[in-house]
Amino acid sequence: MDQNPNQGEYIVVKAKDQGVQVIGLTRGQDTKFHHTEKLDKGEILIAQFTNHTSAIKIRGKAVVMTKYGTVETDI
């Protein structure tokens, strides 16, 4: 199965508290916020890095799962 070069890695974010923010940041010369999601405790978001998204910022207590492993925020 060929992977589309325009599709990037996926991450899974699971909120451990109310109000966890997941913020997508743009690619390019000027990095800007382009999308924000707010998760309630127990909610899960599956996010993808794309041609437009170069970074994802997470605020609040959450578990982040990638193909490289699992990380928990310390906040």
From TrEMBL:
Pfam families: TrpBP. Residues 7-74 form the Tryptophan RNA-binding attenuator protein domain. InterPro entries: MtrB (IPR000824), Trp_RNA-bd_attenuator-like_dom (IPR016031), Trp_RNA-bd_attenuator_dom (IPR023558). Keywords: RNA-binding, Transcription, Transcription regulation. GO terms for molecular function: RNA binding. The keyword Transcription regulation applies. Belongs to the MtrB family. Oligomer of 11 identical subunits arranged in doughnut-like structure. NCBIfam families: PRK13251.1 (NF009724). This is Transcription attenuation protein MtrB. It comes from Paenibacillus darwinianus. The lineage of its organism: Bacteria, Bacillati, Bacillota, Bacilli, Bacillales.
